[in-house]
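Late entry, written up from scratch paper. The run itself happened at the end of the previous shift, but nothing got recorded in the book at the time, so transcribing now.
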Amino acid sequence: MKKKIILLSVILLLLFLLCYPAEALAAARNGLKLWLETLLPTLLPFMILTGILVHTDWITKILQPTAPFFKVVFGLSPGGAYVFLLGLLTGYPMGAKLTADLYYAGKISRQEAEYLLTFCNNPSPAFLITYVGHICLEGKLHIGFLVRILFLSDMICMCFFRFTFYRKNSLLSFCTPKTSEQEYTSAGLLDFVIMNSFETMAKLGGYILMFSILSAAISHFWYLPAQGKYILLGLIEVTTGLHGLLLSGFSYSLRVLLALCMSAFGGFCIMAQTKSVLGKELSLHPYASAKCMNAAVTAALILIFL
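Output as recorded:
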C-alpha cells in the first residue's frame, strides 16, 4: 500500500511537471525560497553549534546542576534536557535531529530517544509569533494565548506517553556510539559537523521542494471545495495550509482552530523531514502518534478556552 501511494505521487508529480511547467516552476521556486531565506539561515548555525556540543562532554557539564529537576519533572537525563530546551527554541525538525545525534553518539538510550520524539519536535516560537500569529491570524489573537495552548498541549502529550508507554524509561542504558570518540575530539571535528549539517539541510531542502510541488499538483488536479482543499494542503505542508486559511473564507474562530491544529501536527512534509534525520535505528511511529494526539488535544483546548 505504501509503495503504491509513493508510485502514484511520483506519477502525479511527473505529469504535473510535464503538463504544467509554469505552475510547477512557481511552486518549486516558493519551496526553495522558504528553504534558502528561512530554514537555512535559521537552522544551519544551530546545527553546527549543537553538533559540536553533542560530540563533546560539554552538555553534561552545562546541564548537570539542573539534572535532578529534569529527571523528576520530565524523566530526562542531562542530554534529554538539552534536546527539550533547544527543541522549544529552534523548531521543526531540530528536536528530532538533536535526539538522533545524541542517540547515535551514545549520550541517551534508545527508549529515552523515542520518548523525546513524542514532545520535543515542535514549531519554533519565531514561527508561531510571526507566521501563525501575525500573518495567518492577522495579529488579532494574543500571542501569549497561542504559545500557551500549544505548549500545554505538548506537555499533556508528554505526560501521557511518559506514564503509559515510557514509565520505565532508562536514563542509564546507553547505546554504543557509532563513531569513535577519537574522531570527535580530533582537529577535524568542526569539518565533520559542518558537512553533517549541510547534508541534513540539503535533505530538508529536497523534501520542501518536492512537497511544495506536490501541494501545487493536488491543488490543480483535485477538484475539492476550496475549504476542503486548504485543510488538505495544511495536512501536507503546514506553511501552504496556513497561507490558504487566509483565502478560505472561514470564520475567525474556525481559522484559529485549524491554524493551531496544523501547527501542532506539522504536516506530512515535516514528518518526512523528521524521518530523514532519525536514521535507521529510530522509529517514526512514536513521533507520528504523538503528533496526531497533539493536534487532537490542541483542538480540545481551543474549544475549551477560546
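The chain has one domain: 12-169+196-305.
(Scratch paper discarded after transcription.)
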